[in-house]
Amino acid sequence: MSEARMKHFGWGREGEAMSGEEEGFLLDRYRRRFGVDEFEEKPAPKPQEIELPPPRIAPPASLASLASNDPHERARHTYGKSYPDYVRGLAGDYALAPDVVAYPRSEADVAALLDWAGDVGAAVIPFGGGSSVVGGVEHRLDRARYKAGLTIDLGRMGRVLEVDRASRAARIEAGAFGPALEAQLKPHGLSLRHFPQSFEYSTLGGWIATRSAGHFATLYTHIDDFVESLVVLTPQGRIETRRLPGSGAGPSPDRLFIGSEGILGVITEAWMRLQDRPRFRAGGAVRFRDFFAATRAVRSIAQAGLFPANCRVLDAEEAFNTGAGDGSFAVMVLAFESGDHAVDPWIERALECCRDHGGTPEAVEGADAHREGAAGLWRNAFIRMPYGRERMVGRAIISDTFETAITWDRFERFHDAVKRATETAIKDVTGRLGQVTCRFTHVYPDGPAPYFTFHALGRHGSLIEQWRAIKTAASDELIASGGTITHHHAVGRDHRPWYDRQRPHLFAAALKAAKQALDPRGLLNPGVLIDP
Amino acid sequence: MSEARMKHFGWGREGEAMSGEEEGFLLDRYRRRFGVDEFEEKPAPKPQEIELPPPRIAPPASLASLASNDPHERARHTYGKSYPDYVRGLAGDYALAPDVVAYPRSEADVAALLDWAGDVGAAVIPFGGGSSVVGGVEHRLDRARYKAGLTIDLGRMGRVLEVDRASRAARIEAGAFGPALEAQLKPHGLSLRHFPQSFEYSTLGGWIATRSAGHFATLYTHIDDFVESLVVLTPQGRIETRRLPGSGAGPSPDRLFIGSEGILGVITEAWMRLQDRPRFRAGGAVRFRDFFAATRAVRSIAQAGLFPANCRVLDAEEAFNTGAGDGSFAVMVLAFESGDHAVDPWIERALECCRDHGGTPEAVEGADAHREGAAGLWRNAFIRMPYGRERMVGRAIISDTFETAITWDRFERFHDAVKRATETAIKDVTGRLGQVTCRFTHVYPDGPAPYFTFHALGRHGSLIEQWRAIKTAASDELIASGGTITHHHAVGRDHRPWYDRQRPHLFAAALKAAKQALDPRGLLNPGVLIDP
């Protein structure tokens, strides 16, 4: 491969980073926020400084070409991209490294790897882009039960295998990363148009396994609705669901595997519903003096049946932090798009809804309005954000996000309670005021998906404990106030305590029984969603 | 109750029937179709002529006020409304009558009934409106395993319990019939707008348990998307899912129960997503010389992101049979509606798509265009259709429908193969030409849901065998050509042979395991979807 290799610590490939200017902007903001002149800096260990536990298994000869004990590969597959992952990476703690990392090129390879894992008693973690922020890809294992940890990286299964232009669908291997997937669809004039923030470094299989949410703020929010059929390999054999535009034949088989986070099988390919590439666009930013006024405008748009591609709201502080506002107003980023027809009547009606709630459209005109002004600034900040964490954690800055969903009737009270609980925890834990901001990433006729970002100044040596105390306070409030522990970040291992409270006890019993039928030895991603 | 009681044989309540004129129209058409002057008529037995097997269990004193051995109630809960159900009713065959019919008024009642069924070893069939056309509500039991059959009729749990106007949602008891449900929502300016053909005599719980499809021809086709949360009572206890507009926390618990057809538990209530009542409408009928040209127009509309409420196509013969055409052209029934905004740009673009494929809009203008002309004629025929079967079966006319879904790339070949297989079977089985017509009930960006109707002249004494031979030929072809055995009629017992071929073997294993966790004694609707 001519591309640089993936970082073992940080976002993306080696050599990619925030620019000095971007980092300076962030640090300057944090200095003023926390009232400090400098940060205590701790560098991340260099690759050669990382110590890995000796591998407990080695691939047999028949799998040697697919599997590796290479230290860099083991290191970079140890964690996802959560805040505690970065803290442990910073501390050089790689105790949970997989013993073997395998790169299947085919379904048959995956089946052989599952068989081998069963033979040697290894836990198996399916790995896409490794962008989990919920501990979804780490071998946090019961060492008495599992003899070793095998990570199956689908990254070499990234082809678009078939395109059905008439039905606007394609059969795609699960390891396809966002950009490569789109590049293969482009010659057909088609697009999946699923752009999560992790787009560049996450895969189709990962999106499906975690119920990723993407580009579309309304209607097609989660990947779920784009899945036409799936192939899943389980330790008991292969599952292929039928390619259908719709069906009423029993509970949907696909829906059992969508969101199964690797505990039921390895998703190896999917037929995906696609979109025409947009030819018509209209959009821009709308300012609101009051965040709740903006959210009520969003509600009226979400209930109007207009289905904007973008309809995101940033509170005033979030707008300020991303350069989309001066801190005195909330911003709605609004956009319609279509591959079929001009969308003027749609945006006009949506803007009426905004004006009804006191919104003022920004004066940016033209077809690229959605890329300019506040909307464009916010978009750029959004895409660059993942590169920030690796630079901030070394300065003991605790910065993280959590996301949820709630019905409209409860939203305003919910928002205030969650924000207050998180702010209070930050003050209690760090002894200093932090910041908690909110935006909507997705909206539904019956409620929004609020996304909270928090910033606190922590202390080296205690970062994980401090982070956990804040996260716990926020999560407790999410659940107590009726929300979901996750709208699209998934459950993994880190959200388990709250997921366990949220999901019905007997549903967990049913899921456990289903897993037992497909994975009787409990090899697959143990500890995620349920105890095996 | 002041209303007439439900028929034991036929659609709706006693006293309701096709008018003489409607029946005359149907019979005249059949006479010409089959080239006969008269039909051999066989009357259905009167209620007092029906013999029921003696009940094997009687409710205990604590449940006596909820449960009954009344012969009329047992007779009318024996079958659904499928063609073989009518034939058996005509023959006075009530061998499968439930031993007891119970009418809970609360969740506690349902729980008590499940406990009692466990105690006495009775199979339990949850019963909504009893409109199943797939053998979903009959006690076709292994008599060695089940000591008796208990039917739990939810019809007394029909209240709208809570309305959340802000989120446009309501908490509704599962036994609510369509009209009563809508009547309770109307004062709030809201509507579920889920109108399956059975609307008047089917219930919310039945719709959810069978993945019913309704009014909306695009986007919100199945009830699935309207379900915000559920309460399900299982023999192991109560499941309540969290009320959320969207979630990414593991596989959706709701989706396991949506389409579970009574095998996992009794759905007792649901929070449902509602619609504003429409204030703006535009629509009408569009004629096409060629059915496939019409279907290609539908495809372009379905892929344009316009989301018409109605977008149904009838082939020329189907249009003729329902009075919507003269047999020389196919008809598209097209309608947009909104509670928020005028829909002119939407219908204009959809009509452009029609013209691109040679369609000619019918000249009916005005806000009620969707109720007039060919569209209106078809709509009336659609609503009255269920009353026809009870009048035709006594004349040995075999008339039934089956429905499916298929991706666009395979549709035309699929259509021809299914139509030919069914026509051939009719000729082989009855020695006489019949008729097979097709329409689309629902359409998706990636494919349509074709709905076939067939007509044949059978022979008294052999009707079920003749029907089964035709049904088998059609179903074999549906599955061989890549379709689903059902888009919205459900699986029940009658579709099992084809469902078993369609769904992945290991998914059945997972579903069986989940059932075992929730219903360890296998009491609930045995034989539906899987073997318990």
Write up this protein:
2 copies of one chain form a homodimer. With 532 residues, chain A is α+β, with helices and mostly antiparallel strands. Among the domains of chain A are: 20-156, Uridine Diphospho-n-acetylenolpyruvylglucosamine Reductase, domain 2 (2-Layer Sandwich); 280-386, Alpha-Beta Plaits. Chain A contains 16 helices and 18 strands. The first copy, chain A, has helices spanning 20-34, 71-76, 83-90, 107-120, 178-185, 204-210, 253-257, 291-302, 316-321, 344-356, 373-384, 389-392, 408-430, 463-480, 496-502, 505-518; strands at 67-68, 100-102, 122-127, 148-153, 160-164, 169-173, 190-191, 227-234, 237-240, 266-273, 275-276, 280-288, 310-314, 330-338, 360-361, 397-403, 435-444, 447-457. A 5-stranded antiparallel β-sheet of chain A has the order 5-6-10-8-9. A 4-stranded mixed β-sheet of chain A has the order 1-2-4-3, with helices on one face. A 4-stranded antiparallel β-sheet of chain A has the order 13-14-12-15, sandwiched between helices. In chain A, helix 8 (291-302) packs across helix 10 (344-356) and helix 13 packs antiparallel against helix 14 (463-480). The longest helix of chain A has 23 residues, at 408-430. Chain A is globular. The mean pLDDT of chain A is 95.
